[in-house]
Amino acid sequence: MKEEMIVTPWEVKGEIDYNKLIEEFGIKAIDEALLNRIKKHTKDLHYMLRRKIFFAHRDMNWILDEYEKGNKFFLYTGRGPSGKTHLGHLIPWLFTKWLQDKFGAKLYFQITDDEKFLFKEKLSLEDVKNYAYDNILDIIALGFDPKKTFIFSDTEYAKTLYKEAIRVAKHVTYSTTKAVFGFKNDSNIGQIFFTSMQAVPAFLESLKAGKNVPCLIPLAVDQDPHFRIARDVMPKLGYYKPAVIHSKFFPGLSTVQKMSSSQPFDTIFTTDTPDEIETKVMRAFTGQQATKELQKRLGGNPDICAICQYYYFLFEPDDKKVEEIFEKEKKGKILAGEHKKDLAERVVKFLEEHHKKREKARDMVEKFILRD
Amino acid sequence: MKEEMIVTPWEVKGEIDYNKLIEEFGIKAIDEALLNRIKKHTKDLHYMLRRKIFFAHRDMNWILDEYEKGNKFFLYTGRGPSGKTHLGHLIPWLFTKWLQDKFGAKLYFQITDDEKFLFKEKLSLEDVKNYAYDNILDIIALGFDPKKTFIFSDTEYAKTLYKEAIRVAKHVTYSTTKAVFGFKNDSNIGQIFFTSMQAVPAFLESLKAGKNVPCLIPLAVDQDPHFRIARDVMPKLGYYKPAVIHSKFFPGLSTVQKMSSSQPFDTIFTTDTPDEIETKVMRAFTGQQATKELQKRLGGNPDICAICQYYYFLFEPDDKKVEEIFEKEKKGKILAGEHKKDLAERVVKFLEEHHKKREKARDMVEKFILRD
After folding, report:
1. What single string gives the DSSP state of each residue in A113-151?
2. Low-confidence residues of chain B: pLDDT under 70
3. B270-302 residue pLDDT tens
4. A192 backbone φψ class: left, alpha, beta (φ>0; ψ -120 to 50)
5. Using a CB-CB distance cutoff of 8 angstroms, which residues of chain B are in contact with residue A162?
6. Contact B173 A162 (CB under 8 A)
């Protein structure tokens, strides 16, 4: 029996059916017409768009209408600092950086330290603050434009955020949060309030500019429920509804579901050493046949092979090469050992570069941090 | 049929039975033993204690135990800026000033602009901010020690308050706020969160001092429910439970119930002109007999006479003189017109003095405001 699919900002469980999610969330699939329209402005299409890793949206056509009228949008994304950064977190961030580069957009990057403190029973505020700093290094390492990127944590930027959050909160009933997030009587009152804090950055640029500025939010699809609420409230405060573009979940190494840092071997952290990376990749699930002979004869299934999925999501931007990798797997032309070794090399190389940029980021943090 | 008594921080209705409140809230009546113990330190007793206008408490004996051990307490009280200051607001503030003087105590004075914005549908954040400034002038005019008094509004001091409020919120479930405040599904999520913000000043001095400091909160009894929650949570955060001392409600002019600024003739604002004051006092309810002759023969009832109650609560600190006034009323020796004229003179005189101090307060605001 299949495990029931659950997708909320705090829990992703079961086998993910993205078509069903599109229907349940009331979002739109990204189609060829939209991709062509984006391409008109960006010249090329990011592989995450070509492959529909970013697969759905809200109001992308409106964002482009406004852009074409000369009304530029700003970007907003975020990170809940509940642990070290893993590769899955990089998906929306890398795509956000591409959008920033292509559209010259400002970016507000929210670190929801309050959220993770409120939702993770065992985490202290000090823990999440430490993770926040750690995560910010990874964000900066990706090369965002320091002149156009504003990173802030909810508790540190509360003087600005709280008074805007209560404007949102005044329009959101307990009923709504119960229906959207599934809160119960034993939910704590900080959890219930929190979505108000997550709404604010969607109008921060409008606040600062003193005029209404369109907002585009790239995110993993589990975060969408917050913006269902925000889109409802923001027009009541005089702001545009924010547009949203949704990514699929980065697969785990041990099963091809959302990567989770609570299963240590399922996850590669950006700070892992080459040895740790190799160990984890070598233990990955490929779904290959029981013996070499069977694999050579029957082949494997790239859709459930974590190695193939890693190439697809993050380590091979060339579509042709991904196709070749998938073909080899399907036809039994590559065995698990070699397959893993190749990927491990790529990951090690990628993260070695990342580590260097991450160390340099330490001196750049102050350039990015937004203060009241 | 009597109207049912309702006492919450946002609604006071019906005839108030203070004995019943003591029972329902689980607070303790102030008795002679406690008064004597306080008097040991203060030499004299404030008339609000002698008359049991401050009538109940939580843990006052513990506060005195600590004080006697050399562990001084700090004071915390507040104001919800939903309108102009009226005479009723002065009751706990004047008493708080007396406590500050007698015990040399620091005072944290919270202006809950967030609360009033969240609970008053028609008030904008800009409205409550204007009222906040207006109210702060009245507070300062009462003569608090600028070196020991720290006034702050929740939205302006949010950088400090929010991150402490979420520590409280993590320990408070929706169930609890439902039971304590009567929240419903259509309560907004800012209202539900708010009690966390009201808890924080009860440990602000401990935060700043870096050690546990006892806190005493003088308040009107309708605010007690917040501190039932705070007293439950604070030991979990490593702080003492705050002690509380509760006042009765200042009577309205038209019926002897809690004064309410939503009925303009029921209320004297601190900014009223002599003409306005006279008009309001002359319209007050005295409960005297239908004719002068009947009044002279049968007398009146000071307990339902707004004029008598005004002397009792605010305009005659001398107990003997209050007794004389009550006697005259009881025995029909004073008629409504004269009774009112005397009081109006006192109120005008009091507020003329207050207006002067209030104008001077404009230049002193910055000395009192606490900033992050």
Report:
1. HHHHHHH-TT--HHHHHHHHHHHHHHHHHTT--TTTEEE
2. 1-2, 256-264
3. 999 999 999 999 999 998 888 989 999 999 999
4. alpha
5. 114, 154-155, 158, 161-162
6. no
Q: How many CB pairs under 8 A join A and B?
A: 127
Whether residue B188 lies within 8 A of chain A, CB to CB, comes out as yes
Alpha-carbon distance A245 to A44, whole Å? 18
How far away is chain A from the Cα of B171, in angstroms, using its nearest Cα?
A: 7
CB-CB under 8 Å, A174 with B117? no
Determine, for residues A114 and B166 on separate chains, whether the beta-carbon distance falls below 8 Å.
yes
The residues of chain B that CATH labels 3.40.50.620 are 6-249
Contact assignment for A114 to B163 by CB distance below 8 Å: yes
Say what the pTM is.
0.95
* DSSP class of B82: S
CATH number of B6-249: 3.40.50.620
User: What is the distance in angstroms between the Cα of A125 and the nearest Cα belonging to chain B?
Assistant: 8
Which class would CATH give A264-360?
Answer: mainly alpha
CB B233 within 8 A of CB B168: yes
Q: Which two three-digit tokens encode residue B127?
A: 């409205």
The closest of B201, B189, B209, B125 to B165, measured between CA atoms, is B201
Per-residue model confidence as pLDDT tens digits over B4-53: 899 999 998 888 999 999 999 999 999 999 999 999 999 999 999 999 99
What is the 8-class DSSP label of residue B315? I
By the CB < 8 Å criterion, does A207 face chain B? no
